[in-house]
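Tutorial, part two.
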Amino acid sequence: MPSLWKRITFSVASALCVGSVVLLVVALSTERWVIGRILCKTGVDIVNASSPELDQFMGNIYYGLFQGGKTKRCGLGNRRSKIYIFPKLVQTLNGGLHMMVILFLLVAVGFALVSLSFCIYNARKVPYQSIKGHKGLYLWNFIAALFGALGVLCFLAAVKHHRLTERVANYGENLFVLEVLEDTLDWSFWLGIGSVVTHFAVCGVVAMSRIKLPKPEIKKTEEPTVSSLDLLY
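Running the prediction step on this input gives:
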């Protein structure tokens, strides 16, 4: 049976692993990886709009790994539409890179669950194999952090170097050309970063579990000794 200190530290590590899984699942399922502002270039060219009039042709866009939405203004008022990455839009993107993002994050979820199971095991039992103890936990968390980092880096590369937002914004547009004025990474992306940081925190907590705390010393009461002289009296 592990000591109280180890049970506490591995329980904290288990909670962090659960947090990492939750962060990744929420990041995968939400639509706020990127937000941006778009300009209806066709509408601006038709009316030869000047700077004060450009606000009438500006809209916004947001999207995640599976879906999103946009609002465009091309002189006909606000027109909202839903964006679905699968099954057709992904074919116009760098599909391989987009699938790698999803695959890497799913693998990170898997290894986070493996790490969680070993944290629970160490909190309840003393492992007799090193791969089930501290070394295994370091390995599983490193792999989970690695795949999580690869996932967010691949997505960052798609946004910055493959004009992902521009392709998503203009998909299905036959009459208008939309220009991306700015796009920024939103909170769903940062949840993926938070998951990577969480795994390094787990490694730190696991390292703390190896600290041996001093055991409180219990002082024994000294029993009175009876000498031979005492017996004579």
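The chain has eight helices and five strands. In part three we will examine how such features are distributed along the chain.
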